[in-house]
């Protein structure tokens, strides 16, 4: 018992060390002093592109920070007091022929669902393309000013879901893992069940598996060179222990894609 | 419960520390000391359906003027492959744009599939390392299973052996190098000829000491002509992407340069002194002053460089130059193995051997 206690103390110290090093995490959604993160659409937020216009009357909700996604009352029954209409877009799913889950678990891999669907209620290319971000479920639409729709790299159209982005909303369980590991082309790539990131309650990989919508746990370093210059390396990443955005990003990737660093030697 | 959580956290912390450690075996593209943006270096804005394509590779490994240098910490290891691949003789990488498919299984079974060679046909971008250029490459189709590629020649065979789309002018290299042949250059295994008198050390017929070399790699002959270029068979100024010059022409004046590829392993003095074949130097150097090159002919006129399914000593007559004898025969006949004696039935340079014994 004593030993376990000692190990626990060491572990806690290590954890605290990590916590200290993660002080360089990105801004909290609620931080109004230096500016909240990009998911804070309040008109009071600083340094963000997508946000509400200044309120015109005392009744305007433009200064609130949660209302764009959440409501305490009359929420839709999806999850987390959700305050947005579901995206009506049919996206399809990731279409690469090399994806093993397409062959082994086709029934478990279809339209983006669960929390991914919630993310897509803003990032779907329809809400973002034609419906203002301020079109919340409860209450009057919020005036978002000039940048009221997502454009560019943050937009997930059906085409991007199919080929330009990591697949989402697929079941990743032991059966799927075994199928991947027994695939002749994939077996050298050392797939594993995640240890850092979390699948949803139905064992599905969702946007939230890798991204924390409320706070980027990593630094908000940017690419310094074209074509991604200025773009955040790891937007809303769930992991920040390395105190380096690209290392944190890779740690999340490698959590499932455990690519061996000692590949077999060739004569 | 708190203990359990603590232990899990400890394990997590350790695993993170391990993930950051890089060794000399760390695949280049997984080494965060080399790629400051990690996975994002290639995968931001990546088109998964078509893969990164050769443009993806060449954005770092191509023309330095077009290179995104900020993506990598040091450009010291980088070579301009775009320039390399524009040498006269090259694997057709630049010409093969968009022909590679990540579904393809080699050797190719569709005779209509377009011949191509893309970077990823030989290099697996995640696992390639400076000590193992071919790590992680897809294996060979063998029935319904893929067998790992563990030697260089197996990798070459993926395209140059049993492919259904092998052009007619190409010979199946697996058949040429088969160790069941009467003779072959020792690629798949040690050779059969126990008396190759011209061999230069460390090359030996059989390996008896640690330093002996008795088995070759395709890359020993095929590769860049330039020591400052990547060693692989990307390109060369010499035909067939050879590392040294090898003249296959008739009426060639013998010189170190003309057959410098052969002379890497086979002692020129031994060959020109006829140590193995009584008339070797006469054939190579010629003696007809009326002919260009004095009537000398290439090693290739009598020898195949890969393997012969018919004769020992890699003898296979080049029928562009050699024709049947007056009795209609074109063949080599050995008189006792290893005796350096035999006879030829053939016509060459207007001379009839019917047979000529030596």
Automatic annotation (TrEMBL), chain A:
Residues 1-24 form the signal peptide. Keywords: Signal. This is Cytochrome C. It comes from Geoanaerobacter pelophilus. The lineage of its organism: Bacteria, Pseudomonadati, Thermodesulfobacteriota, Desulfuromonadia, Geobacterales.
From TrEMBL, chain B:
It catalyses: 6 Fe(III)-[cytochrome c] + NH4(+) + 2 H2O = 6 Fe(II)-[cytochrome c] + nitrite + 8 H(+). GO terms for biological process: anaerobic electron transport chain. It comes from the Bacteria. It is found in: Cell envelope. GO terms for cellular component: outer membrane-bounded periplasmic space. SUPFAM superfamilies: Multiheme cytochromes. The keyword Metal-binding applies. The keyword Ion transport does not apply. Residues 1-21 form the signal peptide. Keywords: Calcium, Heme, Iron, Metal-binding, Oxidoreductase, Signal. It is an enzyme of class 1 (oxidoreductase). Its EC number is 1.7.2.2. Its main location: other. GO terms for molecular function: heme binding; metal ion binding; nitrite reductase (cytochrome, ammonia-forming) activity. Belongs to the cytochrome c-552 family. PANTHER family: CYTOCHROME C-552, CYTOCHROME C-552 RESPIRATORY NITRITE REDUCTASE. This is nitrite reductase (cytochrome; ammonia-forming). It comes from Geoanaerobacter pelophilus.
